[in-house]
Amino acid sequence: MPYDHLQIEAKWQEYWRVNKTFRAEDAGDKPKRYVLDMFPYPSGDGLHVGHPEGYTATDIISRYYRMKGFNVLHPMGWDSFGLPAENYAVKTGTHPRTTTEKNINNFRRQLQMFGFSYDWEREIATTDPGYYRWTQWLFTKIYEKGLAYEAEAAVNWCPELGTVLANEEVIDGLSEVGGHPVIRKPMRQWMLRITNYAERLLADLEDLDWPEHVKELQRNWIGRSEGAEVDFIIDGHDEKLRVFTTRPDTLFGATYMVLSPEHPSVSRIATAAQREAVAEYCRAAARKSDRDRGIAKEKTGCFTGAFAINPVNDERIPIWVADYVMMGYGTGAIMAVPAHDQRDWEFAREFDLPIIQVISGGDIEREAWSGDGELINSGLLDGLNVVDSIAKISGWLSERGLGEAKVQYKLRDWLFSRQRYWGEPFPLLHLEDGTVRALGEDELPLLLPEVESYKPSGTGDSPLTTIPEWIEVDDPVSGQRAKRESNTMPQWAGSCWYYLRFIDPDNDVAAWDAEKEKYWLPVDFYIGGLEHAVLHLLYARFWHKVFFDLGLVSTNEPFARYRNIGMILGEDGEKMSKSRGNVVNPDDVVRDFGADSLRLFLMFLGPLDRDKPWNMKGIEGIHRFLARAWRLFFDEENNLLPAVQDVQPDDETLRIMHRCIHEVSEMMVDQRFNTAISQMMIFVNEMSKRDVRAQSALEAFLLLLAPFAPHFCEEIWQALGHAESLSYTRWPVADTSWLEEDMVTVVVQVNGKLRDRFDVPVDADAEKVKEQALAGGKLQPFLEGKTVRKVIYVPGKLVNIVAN
RNA sequence: GCCGGAGUGGUGGAAUUGGUAGACACAAAGGACUUAAAAUCCUUCGGUCCUUUGGGCCAUGCGGGUUCAAGUCCCGCCUCCGGUACCA
Fold first, then answer.
1. Strand ranges (E), A423-524
2. Is A359 strand, coil or helix?
3. Is the pTM of this model over 0.90?
C-alpha cells in the first residue's frame, strides 16, 4: 500500500485553509514578492490538464520564496465577463451571472484541489459590481485625460446572424457559428488612444526582464518605422496630397500616386470622365470582405483622371485609386515608386505605368530593387547612396516646407466597445446638448440592468438598447435629458488592472490604497501563455502608464518579470480540444494519482516555455517516484522505518545531500524544474540503497521537494515530529565543500577521440597528468607511426593528444 | 513573403562558459519473488560491424567551415510550430 494521496491531500488543504497559512500581509520587515498568474476565464468546461501547468510553476516559485524568507503575494481571481456565458444566455435565457457563478465555483474547487498556495481572501471577479465599479471609475479617468473618443469604426457584422462578432468568432471571413459571410460595417465605437503611448510602450520594453521573443512580438505589433511625409500638389486643385514614405530617397522615381478607396480626397479629385468608374471601384472595394481582401493578391485599381505634381522635379504624375493602399496606415495615400517597391512594380506592370530606376542595382525588368546603390536620374541626389540621400532630401524638403520627418506606427487606436450585454456598462451619459458626461465616483457602479432577452437587437447594437427605461434618463447633474451609452466594455478592461485590485481587494473607497501599491508593485513574477503575449500585456502596460501619468501608481511598468508557459498537448501531440477528444480531465488524474503527482509530472515533462504532449504512462512513473520516496520513510503499514535514524550522516550521505541541495537550488533560480526533479530522483535512488538513513538528510530532501509536492512533504514532515507546517521553514543551504571530489576521472583523447581514462587527484600537476596520459597502453595503437604535436590538458576533465 | 521558436535514442527530455552525447524518466525485453497476476526488486536497452569478459566505425535535421576539440560558434539549406501579412 503506497501513500494514501486522497486522505493526505484533503488533510493538508484543510490545514492550510484553517490556519490561513498563505495569507499575505500588506507590510512588514520581510522583502516582498508578488507572484502572479494570468487569471482564467471560468469556462463551462472546467479546467483541462494544461491549465495547472503555469499555476503549478508560480506555486512552486511562491512556496520557494516563502521558504527563502519573503513575504509573498500569490492571488487568484476570475476574468469572468465574456462571450460564452452570453451566448449560452442567448440560447437558454439563463442569466450570464448564474452561469458565471456556477463556473467560478467549479474552477475554484478544481484549483483548490491542486493545493495551490493562493491567498484566497483576495479572490476577485471582474463581474462583481464591487470590482467593475472601479473598472468604470478607471475608464472615467482615462476619458477625462482625453484618451477615449468616439469614432466610426468598422466592425465584423454578420447580416445572417444580425450581430457583431468578435475577431475570434470570425474564421476566414466567415462566422464561426454557421459559417455565414462577415462584412465590415462602420458603427459608432469608443476608441482608446493607445497610439499616444506607442513610443513609450516600445522604448520601455528595453528594461523589462521578459523573454526576448515576447518583446519582439510587441515591437512588431507596435511596428515603428521612420520616414517622411511629403506634400504633392494636385494639378488644378487647391488641395495637397500628403503621403508617408520610408524612402524619400526614391522621390525622383515616383511615377504615379495611389489613394486608398476610403481616402476622403477621392471623390473630390476624380474627373468627370472617370467619376463613375472611380465610384464603382470604391463601392466594390467596400463590399469586399476581409477574406477577399486577404486572398486577392493581384493588383486592381482605377485612374482618377487627376494628376499630382512631384515636388522635386515638377513632373505631372497620374493619381490612381487602389485597394492595396490601406486607409488605416500612414495617410492612406502613397507615392508609387515601381522601380523600388515590389507592390508598386506589380501595379505598374498591370496598368502599364512608367518605371524609372533611381537607384542602381538589381534588374528592374524582373522585379523591384529595394537594396542599396548609387542614386541616378535624381538631380541633386545623383551619386549618393541610400542613407545619405535620405538625409539630404529630408533636409531639402523641410527647408522648403514640402515635407517633414515622420515616425509611423502600425499600432492602431484600440477599439474599446462591444455591442454586447455581458460586459461593464460605460459610465457615460450622452446629453441632449450633444455633450458627454462621465459619471462621478459617487454614481458608480453603474449596474448592468436585467433584460428580457440577451439576443442582439438586430441592428448591431447591444441588447441594452432594448431597455428604454435604462437608456433614457434625466440627468440630475446637468438637468438634461440623457441617453446612456449602450455599448459595453471588452473583456480586456477587467484584466487590464486586476493585478492592482489584488493588493487591496476589499477597498470600497478607492480602487487601491496608495501605500499598498507602493509596497507590492511591480509584479515580480508573471507567468502566462503566449496567446496573451501581445494584446493583454500591451493593453495592461498601456493602462498602467496612464495610471502612472495620473499619479495613481508609482511604477512605470506593471510586470517586472514575465515568463512564458508552453502548452500541454494531447497524447496525440495535438492541441487539446473537445472535438479531437484528447482532453485530459484533471479531476480524474487527481483522484487516481493525486495532486502532488500531477504537479510533479507537469513540471517533469520538460522546460516550462515549451509545448509538451501529455502522457498517461508518464504520470504513473512520477507517482512511482513519490511512492518510492515514501518508502524511504515508511514500511508497508506506514510505520516509520527503523532505518530512519537521528544520527550524524556519513560522508557519502552528506555528499549526496549537499549535491542535491546545490543542484536543486541552482535550478530554482531559473525555473528549470524538470531537471530539479531529476536531481531529487537521484537522491531517492541513492538513499533507497542505504540501511541507515540520516533523518537530517531526509529532512533536507523534504524541504527541497515541498514546493513541488507540498501535501506529501507536509505529511512526512509532521510524521517526523514537527508540529508546524514546513511552509515557512528555511530553504536548506548547500555546503559546497562537500561538492568537491578528491579524485576525478580524466579522459584521454587522441585527435579528439576518446581512447582512455584514469583517475587522478583533483589538484594533480598538469605535467604529471599529461605524462600519465601518454603512457597509457590503450593509446599505443592510435599513436603508432605518428608524432605527438601537442598535448592539451583541461584540468580535471580531459587530455587531448594531437598527433599525425 | 517577413519576424520569432524548435529539430538529439522507440518516447519525453539532459548536456549553464565549446571539453566523456543520451542524465533523469517512459516504453520495451529478460530475470527474481508469487499457485498466478499486480506491486516491488535486479539486468539489458542509439545504430552498425568484428577476431565478442573486449573493441572498431557511424551518430545530435542536411551540406560546408572555424577549432586540438562542435549538439553548442560561423555560413548556406530543409522540415515543423507560433505570430503577422499589400504597413508604403
1. 428-431, 436-438, 472-474, 481-484
2. strand
3. yes
Collapsing DSSP states into helix, strand and coil, what is residue A22? coil
Q: Which residues are bridge partners to A800 per DSSP?
A: A749, A792
Q: Is the CB of A663 under 7 A from strand B?
A: yes
Q: Before A445, cis peptide (omega within 30)?
A: yes
**What's the rounded Cα separation, in Å, for the pair A598 and A147?**
46
Residue A700: pLDDT over 70 = yes
Nearest-CA residue relative to C1' of B85: A294
CA of A221 to C1' of B2 (A): 13
Tell me how far apart the alpha carbons of residues A560 and A524 are, in angstroms, rounded to a whole number.
5
Could you tell me the distance in Å between the CA of residue A569 and the C1' of nucleotide B21?
28
A453: cell is 432577452
- Indicate if CB(A653) is under 7 A from strand B: no
Q: Are A80 and A98 in contact (CB under 8 A)?
A: no
Report how far apart, in Å, the C-alpha atoms of A545 and of each of A539, A558, A735, A754 are.
10, 8, 45, 59
- Most confident of the ranges A161-175, A525-539, A777-791: A525-539
The answer to whether the C-beta of A611 is closer than 7 A to strand B is yes
The kind and range of the H/E element at A750 are strand A743-750
H/E stretch holding A590 reads helix A586-593
pLDDT tens-place string over residues A15-73: 999 999 999 999 889 999 999 999 999 999 888 888 899 999 999 999 999 999 999 99
- The answer to whether the C-beta of A154 is closer than 7 A to strand B is no
A631: nt with nearest C1' to CA: B40
pLDDT tens per residue, range A146-193: 999 999 887 778 777 777 776 666 766 677 667 777 777 788 899 999
Mean pLDDT, rounded, of chain A: 91
Q: Which nucleotide is nearest to A227 (CA to C1')?
A: B88
Indicate the pLDDT class of residue A2, thresholds 50, 70 and 90: low
Using the structure, give the distance in angstroms from the CA atom of A691 to the C1' atom of B1, rounded to a whole number.
66
**A408 CB below 7 A from strand B atoms:** yes
Å separating the CA of residue A451 from the C1' of nucleotide B52:
85
Is the CA virtual torsion A374, A376, A381, A382 positive or negative? positive
Distance A601 CA to B28 C1' (A): 22
Q: Say whether the CB atom of A10 is under 7 angstroms from strand B.
A: no
Helix segments in A352-407, DSSP class H: 386-399
pLDDT of residue A291: 54
Dist. CA A260–CA A285, nearest whole Å? 10
At A306, phi and psi to the nearest 5?
A: -95, 160
Extract the C-alpha cell encoding A98: 448564474
C-alpha–C-alpha distance, residues A446 and A552, integer Å: 22
Cell numbers that stand for A174 in this block: 466567415
pLDDT confidence of residue A295: 59
Q: What cell was used for A211?
A: 523573454
How far lies A657's CA from each of A333, A440, A632, A727, in Å?
70, 62, 14, 20
User: Residue A303 in contact with residue A352, Cβ under 8 Å?
Assistant: no
Contact (Cβ atoms closer than 8 angstroms) between residue A353 and residue A255: yes
Asked whether strand B has any atom less than 7 Å from the CB of A592, the reply is no
Are A377 and A358 within 8 A, CB to CB?
A: yes
Grid coordinates representing A598?
A: 500531477
Nucleotide B67 C1' to residue A406 CA (A): 49
Which residue reads 555528499 in cell numbers?
Answer: A655
